Amino acid sequence: MTTAALRPLDSEPMLEIQQLSVRYGRAVHALRGVSLRVPANGVIAVLGSNGAGKTTLMRAVSGTLPMHRGIVDGGEVTFDDASLLRRDPADIVAAGVVQVPEGRRVFGRLTVEENLRAGAIGARDRRSRTAARERVYATFPLLAQRRNQRARLLSGGEQQMLAIARAMMAGPRLLLLDEPSLGLAPQVVAQVAEVVRQVSEQGTAVMLVEQNAAMALALAGHAYVLELGRVALERTSAELAGSDEMRRLYLGVADDGGHVPARARRLARWSG
Ligand SMILES: Nc1ncnc2c1ncn2[C@@H]1O[C@H](COP(=O)(O)OP(=O)(O)O)[C@@H](O)[C@H]1O
Ligand SMILES: [Mg+2]
Predict the structure, then answer these.
(1) Which fold is adopted by the domain 15-270?
(2) CA-proximal residue: ligand 1, atom 11 (nearest)
């Protein structure tokens, strides 16, 4: 993995989140005034430890908060200047925003190819569906080899690839990836990172949620750190990698006494 070229955020953002607040019930304020911008190109990373609000942020964008009894109680989410709030998840997919949820949910009893077909939402006819599938197989050659295998027989890394590939079948302009590295061995994480890089190079913007700061920062041109539902830091990847504060807090680099701060221990769990 090499550090991605810096992409300035001066162009108009494709996705803009402004002062977003989200609650679950009365007591849980999962997001408190979060603002974030995703440009039409490249990868932005959203880092943060468990419970920081990363998944909630994705749900707010993909329109799936109501399924989890979440409520937006302030702020705005716009994609191409149109609000995504109070819109149907299918409508948001049709607009070009597709989420790969946590936990690589694939249909285990279906084959790889059947899983991909299930993702071909919005493709108008059989020919365009076939074309979408062949495009996806070109990016994921391993899946092409396994096209007739049942998804439950794939390894964890292969299932994650399939989950991403299925999302790509809808031809998204913005891909929302929720912790794709979770539970994967370091060399498999590197393969997933390579696929994300290719997806981005093919012109799909990526919002990458991760606890694996090392992986995310290797891909991202811009990063946000969420803490307890707020943006605690916003940096370019060069700033993030170069900052001692960041290295100590989020990449698990020991300070002089060889002591790793508590937060680093938590976040560095999957760092390669
Ligand atoms: N469906 C839910 N109902 C109630 N509370 C939730 C629900 N989902 C998440 N939360 C709470 O919201 C906060 C943010 O969670 P989440 O967005 O899942 O964080 P992350 O993805 O960063 O781990 C946490 O306190 C979590 O317990
Ligand atoms: Mg999460």
Answers:
(1) Rossmann fold (3.40.50)
(2) 30
